[in-house]
Amino acid sequence: MAFKKPEVRSLAHHMAAAPHMTVSQFRRDHWVLMTRCPVCHLDCWVDLDAVVRLAGPETRLWNARSRCRRYGCDGRMIFLCTPPGQSRGAFWALGDDRGAKRGIP
Fold first, then answer.
1. Phi, psi of 13 (to 5 degrees)
2. Radius of gyration of the chain (CA)
3. Biggest CA pair distance of the chain
4. pLDDT tens readout for residues 11-45
5. What does the alpha-carbon distance between residue 100 and residue 64 come to, in Å, rounded to a whole number?
6. For 33, which of 4, 54, 93, 104 is 20 to 30 Å away at the CA?
7. Domain boundaries, the chain
8. CA atoms within 13 A on the CB side of 8
9. What pLDDT, in 10s, does the model give residues 56-100?
C-alpha cells in the first residue's frame, strides 16, 4: 500500500480519521481549525501551537467545547476544521450529532 500525502487524500478519509487525531497531528498535517459560538455567532481562528503549549500535544478536539471569547456571552464554542488539500473557507464540524459536552478551558 502506497503512502498518500495528507493533501491528496479524500475528504471522507480525513473526516473518518478526525475523531482519533490529536492536536499535534492536526498541526503536522496542516489542518485549518476555527471555533464558532452557536449563541452569538463569533468565529475565531485556532492557533494549534498555542493549544499544544497550553493543553498538551495529545489533546483531542473531537466533540470538545470551549467557552465563548465574547464578553458577556455564555455560549460554548464548537470546533470546525478544513482538512489539508480541501477548499479554503469550507469548514466541517469536529464532532458528532450526539453533542458530547467535553470542555476545554
1. -65, -45
2. 14
3. 52
4. 676 677 778 889 999 999 888 999 999 999 999 99
5. 7
6. 4
7. 8-96
8. 4
9. 999 999 899 999 999 999 999 999 988 887 777 778 788 876 555
Exposed e or buried b for every residue in 23-55, given b needs 16+ CB within 10 A?
Answer: bebbbebebbbebbbeeeeeeeebebeebbeee
Task: Output the pLDDT for position 102.
Answer: 53
Block residue for cell numbers 452569538: 40
DSSP per residue over 48-83, as a string? HHHHHHHH-TT---TTEEEE--STT---EEEEEEE-
Residue whose C-alpha cell is 469548514 = 91
Ramachandran bin of 12, using left for φ above 0, alpha for ψ from -120 to 50, beta for the remaining angles = alpha
Q: What's the rounded Cα separation, in Å, for the pair 4 and 12?
A: 14
- In terms of DSSP bridges, do strands 64-67 and 32-36 run parallel, antiparallel, or are they unpaired? unpaired
CA distances from 7 to 14, 23, 86 (A): 10, 17, 7
